[in-house]
Design brief:
The protein is an alpha+beta fold. Helices cover 26% and strands 17% of the residues. A 5-stranded mixed sheet has the order 2-1-5-3-4. It has a 3-stranded antiparallel sheet with strand order 10-11-12. A two-stranded antiparallel sheet has the order 6-9.
């Protein structure tokens, strides 16, 4: 009855609540955290990832609800009509600061290189925002790093782990791999794989999702960190992964024109922050010394020599002409590449069908 009266009173068919003195409509099922973020409130969190189910582990996102005895975790508390909510107060600010001081006290370091991962600066940013670099809780630390893991992609620096479990959850909920899990409790809590082994011996597919969701750099992009000493500011350039036809959006990281890493685009319409191992880590070919930078044609001795694009295209056209004259047009067959853009695939089928009058064309991804 109260919900019905509330909706009727506000005249828009939606229930309302009061947040920081403002009358706010919401959709049934929304959490207080979602409503707060939608209305521009800066509610801190370390365990939240919008792609994952709410967890309520870090307790930084707590808010005050009138009539409730204790602050409530906004990420797991669903809104109810008529609620009176405060997202900030002296009490909440003190609560958040103490929590951040305690979290920071367990880590070897707070400041990590931004190349570590997409979300790797979250802890440092919040610690500075709430002036929590006091060191007053310094003492016993948790986490045990695995420098012995020889994989070339993921750095397992668990001395910086805060047990937010985002890595475990994204591996299970988003990737469906269940490759990593949590062992032990308290100061002995450890992110691990089966039998406490190395990633290569587990069901890990090296998609890098655990790296990109980690808020502290405890799981970091080992390939990108090879370039931590490359001078210059890091620039992000949005593009599309070239490896298949899904069209995953990625951000290429460069420093002074040198490619130093790849991060998934969290707002990418096709991937929403997900990548496969190739899209995440197989980018060395871009700057490889053996990569062709100019067309090559064979000279009279059969040796490949550099040529202009006009010369190369003329040579290719002449080669097609000779083959057709000798063997007939049925001897021509086209195979499109899954790494080429749609425009290139369209041009190739146009060449085959309109140019040669053939349907002799296929695509490598079909297999």
């Amino acid at each position: 009855m109260a919900d019905a009266l509330n909706r009727k009173k506000n005249g828009n068919g939606l229930p309302h609540l009061t947040m920081d003195g403002e009358d706010v409509p919401f959709t049934p099922g929304e959490t207080l955290y979602e409503i707060a973020r939608r209305h521009g409130r800066e509610v801190p969190t370390l365990c939240f990832d919008p792609r994952l189910e709410p967890f309520g582990g870090c307790r930084l996102c707590v808010v005050e609800v009138e009539g409730w005895g204790k602050p409530a975790a906004s990420c797991t508390t669903q809104a109810q009509a008529g609620m009176v909510v405060r997202t900030t107060s002296d009490r909440l600010q003190a609560h958040r600061r103490v929590l951040l001081e305690m979290v920071a006290s367990e880590n070897r370091e707070i400041d990590v290189d931004p190349l570590s991962g997409y979300h790797s600066q979250e802890l440092a940013t919040l610690v500075d925002r709430y002036q929590a670099r006091t060191g007053r809780f310094a003492g016993k630390t948790s986490g045990r790093s695995r420098p012995d893991d020889p994989n070339p992609f993921i750095l397992r620096d668990y001395d910086n782990c805060i047990s937010c479990y985002r890595c475990v959850r994204v591996c299970a909920e988003q990737e469906g791999d269940y490759a990593i899990s949590v062992a032990n409790r308290g100061f002995h809590t450890q992110i691990t794989v089966e039998f406490d082994g190395i990633l290569k011996g587990s069901s890990c597919t090296f998609c890098g999702q655990c790296v990109q969701t980690c808020p502290t750099g405890a799981l970091a992009d080992r390939k990108a960190l090879r370039s931590r000493d490359v001078p210059g500011e890091t620039t992000k350039t949005r593009t599309i992964c070239p490896y298949c036809g899904v069209g995953c959006s990625i951000d290429i990281l460069t420093r002074d024109g040198t490619m130093v890493g790849v991060q998934p685009a969290m707002d990418g319409p096709a991937n929403e922050g997900a990548l496969c191992v190739k899209g995440q880590y197989a980018w060395d070919f871009v700057q490889h010394a053996d990569r062709l930078t100019t067309p090559l044609v064979r000279d009279a001795t059969g040796t490949l020599v550099p040529a202009s694009w006009d010369d190369a295209l003329d040579r290719a056209a002449e080669g097609f002409r000779e083959v057709v004259e000798k063997f007939g047009r049925e001897s021509v067959y086209g195979i499109a590449s899954g790494r080429a853009p749609n425009e290139a695939a369209y041009a190739l089928q146009k060449l085959m069908r309109a140019g040669w009058g053939l349907n002799h064309i296929d695509h490598c991804a079909r297999a």
